[in-house]
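User: I've been trying to design a sequence by hand for this structure and keep getting stuck. Would you show me what you'd pick, starting by listing the structure so we're on the same page?

Assistant: Good idea, let's start from the same input. This is the structure you sent:
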């Protein structure tokens, strides 16, 4: 009797803890339940194997989209964001009627978001994340995660603006002034709703003054005062304006 109890207890222990549990005779639903048990216990490596097996062995099953989605989630939770993005995109492309599509679209974007590096590095993943978050917002505008997606787009745009502003700053320091002006304008045109837009216009004004392009500087100052009446550099910009206008009066 004690021996029988030990055998039953050992089998249950294997079910809950072991990745070597025999799944050969399970149907798709039972195997998904087992894979989800691994996933919920954060045993992502073994969960990935099980979800992959379900996707390959039960292609017509009713649980195939669940397995595909949680295969992506397992990669995401284990930090393999490129693989996660690949699996989420497969679900979106191959199972467009699945109830998991909205969540997969968000997680696809979030995978690229997690891959987004420091502003000084190549920003291809940042741009891809923005693209996918925007697709999520466009296709699922009433989803509860839309606000979160919008916030992440704003955060990524700040990063992209920082990169372009820094490029302008470097060009100016290297005395490539025309290039610097082009990059300042790019920040103003493309990232007008980031904190780097008033910084770019302020820097552009100072550079135009340095280049003695006073009329152009005054034009930019007028735009600056209109757009950024509460900016921290407003007082200095007004002082520059007064000085330039005074010099123009004297020259006449």
């Amino acid at each position: 009797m004690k021996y029988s109890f030990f055998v039953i207890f050992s089998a249950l222990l294997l079910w809950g803890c072991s990745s070597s549990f025999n799944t050969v005779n399970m149907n798709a639903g039972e195997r998904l339940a087992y894979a989800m048990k691994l996933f919920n216990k954060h045993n992502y490596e073994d969960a990935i194997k099980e979800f992959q097996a379900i996707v390959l062995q039960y292609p017509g099953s009713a649980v195939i989209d669940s397995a595909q989605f949680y295969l992506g989630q397992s990669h995401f939770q284990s930090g393999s964001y490129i693989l996660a993005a690949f699996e989420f995109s497969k679900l979106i492309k191959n199972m467009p009627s699945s109830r998991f599509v909205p969540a997969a679209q968000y997680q696809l974007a979030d995978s690229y978001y997690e891959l987004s590096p420091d502003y000084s590095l190549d920003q291809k993943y940042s741009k891809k994340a923005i693209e996918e978050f925007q697709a999520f917002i466009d296709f699922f505008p009433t989803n509860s995660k839309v606000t979160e997606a919008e916030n992440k787009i704003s955060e990524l745009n700040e990063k992209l603006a920082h990169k372009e502003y820094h490029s302008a700053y470097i060009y100016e320091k290297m005395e490539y002034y025309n290039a610097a002006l082009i990059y300042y304008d790019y920040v103003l045109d493309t990232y007008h709703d980031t904190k780097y837009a008033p910084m770019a216009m302020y820097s552009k004004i100072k550079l135009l003054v340095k280049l003695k392009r006073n009329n152009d500087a005054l034009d930019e100052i007028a735009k600056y005062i209109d757009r950024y009446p509460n900016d921290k550099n407003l007082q200095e910009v007004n002082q520059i304006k007064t000085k330039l206008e005074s010099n123009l009066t004297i020259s006449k």
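That's my pick for every position. To get oriented when you compare it with your attempt: The domain at 26-95 is CATH 1.25.40.10 (Serine Threonine Protein Phosphatase 5, Tetratricopeptide repeat). The chain has twelve helices and no strands.
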